[in-house]
Design goal:
heterodimer; A: 274 residues; ten-stranded mixed sheet; two-stranded antiparallel sheet; 7 helices; B: 384 residues; Butyryl-Coa Dehydrogenase, subunit A, domain 1; Butyryl-CoA Dehydrogenase, subunit A, domain 2; Butyryl-CoA Dehydrogenase, subunit A, domain 3; four-stranded antiparallel sheet; 13 helices; globular
């Protein structure tokens, strides 16, 4: 199976306090960058779908990663290559010049050229939280789609059985490839994803695999192509842009109440919550 | 990924990527369990295979034996980053192969290397180094464990003390006396778990390093085949001197990394904790204390990294490495002491990381050669 995985880098959520609150847009100076966690899960999913879990050094198929960003985002692509992807594509663009529509259009051109059996994306990116690219891409390609996948099993005939956790249960979908799947966090649990090469009951380590040093070294030599956004999404421009960014208001100090009666009284009269 | 600092000058992208792997391993696989493992005085054996799969175990050993093919800087980075998991003892036990395997790599035949090393680097086997004895520490001339040739094998008798990973070790690299010459009569042997007469007589209770398995080993007329002797008889001393340099540099890294971690915890706490209507950082005495802690930590780190780069490039820097170990160990003591002081009562509670690191750091001026031994080495180089 050939899989295309779209990844985006985001400001490290652990350092989010470095974001300056009064800027017109998010000031990225001095921020540390990491791959979007859901995109890391998508990559882990792609690797699990293209291997026998017992021998995860051998790829049974091909995994191509794509990102849209400036030269610095190649760090995240190299890291994906070190984790096990075979090739990488970077579409040159600044993040501030993009919206979901433009990203989906560019990805469509990449899919047209690469012809993967499956496109995997994180369910959303943790910076903008738009949760739209996978869905728009499915529309543009007219592919079957499953969002928020928690489990994926490749069946003998190549179809994909996808489990989505919904209120009150699990919704199962059977997709015919080529298809699009966006993944949720539970997809990296030990028994969430099985390729047809992996024995039923095989247990993965929980979470995303680590990049070992020899793989980090080899990743430097794996192919990384750079493409121009204008070639992939001709005539399209950014249709939405952020113009203001406000930090949430600081929380006011609380008060201590002597007993429950006072609490109920305050909730009723001051907070008007009752 | 953090911006390049003067300490980390010369590190490549691949070094940084490896550090990121280690940092994530510490955050995901160590930190969530550290309190439980510290209190239990042990951690699961499966962590060795997990660390091997992640390419952390034995990162600086050749790929041909299942290592990561990295250099000394990679193993120093692994010390710095894995400590962020919160347990010095765990890092030491997980890393005991880093002192146990070098004599095999330096003195062993190809057959011996293939027989012993890959299983350790895959995490299947645990390896320990046994030099120290009840009557001999850094003064290896005092080693009394004896190996007597008897046909196609040796008979090994004696005791070893303070052996990291000793209880769980599947193979132990043991220094024994094969001749009367103080230094020239020392030879390394590999002794495997289960060999009759070899046992871990005691698991030792310690001030710190709780998650580390530390043992007393007993060798009672243990029959060791000839093909488990490393190198010629009398070749042990030089191998020890070389491995001491790496071990001491590594302990120097424990020093500055410990200081860096507790400093960050102390700063975060001092900003948060209120006293007399303002945070602790509102008091000049606290600010200046933190400033001094930061200064010492940074100086130790810069010196350690300079030496790591030079040792990795092939220099033999016994004097400087001794200085670095002493300095960083002292910095760790001082910074941990002040961090506990800033935490006040909370700093004396087992639920805080500074409490644990303060206990753990007490080992640094002792293990791998005491401050006094280091000073003797330095004094000798000064012609004193």
């Amino acid at each position: 199976m050939k899989i295309l995985v779209a990844i985006k880098r985001v400001a490290d959520p652990d350092n989010a306090n470095k974001v300056k609150p009064t800027a017109d847009k998010v000031d990225t100076t001095g921020l540390e960058w990491k791959p979007n966690p859901f995109d890391e899960y998508a990559l882990e999913t792609a690797l699990r779908l293209t291997e026998n879990g017992k021998n995860n050094k051998v790829r049974q198929g091909e995994v191509v990663v794509v990102t849209i960003g400036n030269k610095d985002t190649e760090t995240q692509l190299r890291s994906a290559l070190a984790t096990g992807a075979d090739r990488a594509i970077r579409v040159e663009a600044e993040d501030t010049d993009l919206d979901g529509r433009l990203v989906a259009a560019a990805l469509k051109s990449v899919v047209d050229a690469e012809k993967p059996d499956l496109v995997l994306l994180g369910k959303q990116v943790v910076d903008g939280d738009s949760n739209s690219v996978g869905q728009m891409l499915a529309q543009l390609l007219d592919y079957p789609m499953a969002t928020f996948a928690a489990t994926i099993q490749e069946e003998a005939d190549g179809r994909l059985l996808v489990g989505r956790e919904v209120d009150g249960g699990v919704l199962s979908l059977r997709l015919t490839t080529p298809a699009i799947i966006t993944v949720d966090l539970r997809v990296v649990a030990p028994t969430s994803v099985y390729s047809k090469h992996t024995d039923a009951g095989f247990k993965y380590s929980d979470g995303v695999r680590f990049a070992a040093l020899p793989a980090i070294m080899k990743a430097k030599k794996k192919p990384l192509d750079v493409k121009a956004l204008a070639d992939l999404a001709p005539g399209k421009t950014n249709g939405s842009s952020y113009f203001r960014f406000e930090a949430p208001p600081a929380r006011a100090a609380g008060v201590k109440v002597p007993d429950v009666a006072t609490l109920v009284n305050k909730l009723a009269t001051e907070a008007k919550a009752l | 990924m953090s911006a390049p600092s003067p300490e980390s000058a010369g590190l490549t992208d691949t070094h940084r990527a490896f550090a990121e792997t280690c940092r994530r391993f510490a955050r995901e696989r160590i930190a969530p369990h550290v309190v439980e493992w510290e209190e239990a005085g042990s951690f699961p054996r499966s962590l060795y295979t997990e660390a091997a799969e992640a390419g952390i175990l034995g990162v600086s050993f050749p790929e041909a034996y299942g290592g990561g093919g990295g250099d000394l800087l990679h193993s120093m980075l692994s010390v710095e980053t894995l400590l962020e998991g919160g347990s010095s003892g765990l890092v030491a036990s997980l890393g005991s192969l880093g002192i146990a395997l070098p004599p095999i790599m330096a003195l062993g035949t190809e057959e011996q290397k293939q027989r012993f090393v890959p299983k350790v680097l895959s995490g299947e086997h645990i390896a320990a180094l046994a030099i120290t004895e009840p009557g001999a520490g850094s003064d290896v001339a005092g080693v009394k464990t004896r190996a007597v040739r008897d046909g196609d094998h040796y008979r090994l008798s004696g005791a070893k003390l303070f052996i990291t990973s000793g209880v769980r070790a599947d193979l132990v690299t043991v220094l024994a006396r094969t001749g009367e010459d103080a230094h020239g009569g020392l030879t390394f042997f590999v002794v495997e778990r289960g060999t009759p007469g070899f046992s871990a007589s005691r698991a030792l209770n310690k001030t710190g390093w709780w998650a580390s398995d530390t043992a007393e080993l007993s060798f009672d007329d243990v029959k060791v085949p000839l093909d488990q002797r490393l190198g010629e008889e009398g070749s042990g001393f030089l191998a020890i001197m070389q491995s001491f340099q790496a071990e001491r540099l590594s302990l120097a890294f424990y020093g500055h990394a410990t200081a860096e971690i507790v400093l960050a915890d102390a700063i975060a706490y001092a900003k948060e904790r209120q006293a007399f209507g303002r945070p602790l950082t509102g008091f000049q005495v606290t600010r200046h204390k933190l400033a001094e802690m930061a200064t010492k930590t940074r100086v130790a780190k810069a010196f350690n990294w300079e030496l790591a780069r030079r040792v990795a490039a092939g220099e033999y820097l016994v004097t400087e490495v001794s200085m670095a170990k002493n300095f960083a160990a002292q910095v760790a003591q001082e910074v941990c002491y002040e961090a506990v002081q800033i935490f006040g009562g909370m700093g004396y509670m087992r639920e805080t990381r500074v409490e644990r690191f303060a206990r753990d750091a007490r080992l640094l001026p002792i293990g791998g050669g005491t401050t006094e031994i280091m000073n003797e080495i330095i004094a000798k180089q000064l012609g004193l």
